[in-house]
Amino acid sequence: MALAHNLGFPHIEGDLELRARHWQMQKDAGIELLSLGNTAWGDHALATGDQPFAVNWEHLFEEVEQAKALGHTVKPVLIGPLTYLWLGKTHGGDCDKLELLDRLLPVYDQALNRLAALGVEWVQIDEPILAQALPQDWKNAYERVYNILQRAPLKKLIATYSGGLDGNLGLAANLPVDGLHIDLVQAPEQYPTILDRLPTYKVLSLGLIDGADAAPCDRQTTLNLLRDAHERLGERLWLAPSCSLLRSPVELAVQKCQQVAALAAELQQNRIAA
Any idea where the domains of the chain sit in the sequence? Predict the structure, then answer.
């Protein structure tokens, strides 16, 4: 059966009771791998000069411990290091953001190893800038970054959204990670190419439910695509909304989770019937 997950859910800061309620909402909606964390970043300042990076993920580690104590299977979400640099603001003049990478990567390595020590099997790393046209030096940085981060003993899903991979498709497909999420709502044309390019050991997560629109998907067209994907991928097929539901109203986020789970269940029923 295809695994139903989501890329992000409306986030509650501070209140454990409300957070626990949101986790249970995801589970009750049929989501098997719950997303944890708040990745609504994009207006952050970057450390410059010799200043060390101090990315605060303590709240995420606490959430992992709390959710696991309640019996949930979780997938923490981190913003990818290259997206973090690309979106970050520098102060005191222009600088080459890639020059900051070697000081940022140890922070990520420590975070991933700490999550592994907490018993996390999968982590989601959001790299939405892979859906943009990138300079060649940024493309070159991707393979180096993930060759370093792959040392942490947990599985990594790279999440891309808000468009297709286009000229970055081969790059994204071959990063040394364990899975890739693609947006098939905004870029359905990338589906056949990514299937051909994806290494046979990787999970492929298909974003077939529009995470930004209340309208349901075309059920029959979507199921036809899923049958084809399952024939090719088997248990390596995951299903999700096209993008994070972090900024969605809770009611809509629950609805989208239910739609994902319903597709996974119907795919399984059709397989049994066949």
Answer: 3-42+52-273
- Top pLDDT among 14 and 184 is at 184
Q: What is the DSSP string of 45-110?
A: BPP-TTPPP----HHHHHHHHHHHHTT--EEEEEE-HHHHHHHPBP-SS---GGGGHHHHHHHHHH
How many Cβ atoms sit within 10 Å of the Cβ of residue 126?
A: 25
What is the C-alpha to C-alpha distance for residues 175 and 189, in angstroms, rounded to an integer?
21
The pLDDT tens digits for 12-47 are 777 889 899 999 999 999 999 999 987 655 556 676
18 to 10, 23, 72, 182: CA distances (angstroms): 11, 9, 15, 30
Model pTM score: 0.93
How many angstroms separate the CA atoms of 9 and 22, rounded? 8
One of 3.20.20.210, 3.40.50.2300, 3.10.310.10, 3.30.70.1290 is the CATH number of 3-42+52-273, namely 3.20.20.210
Say yes or no to pLDDT of 48 above 60.
Answer: yes
What single-letter DSSP state applies at residue 4? Answer: E
Q: Do 124 and 76 touch, CB atoms closer than 8 A?
A: yes
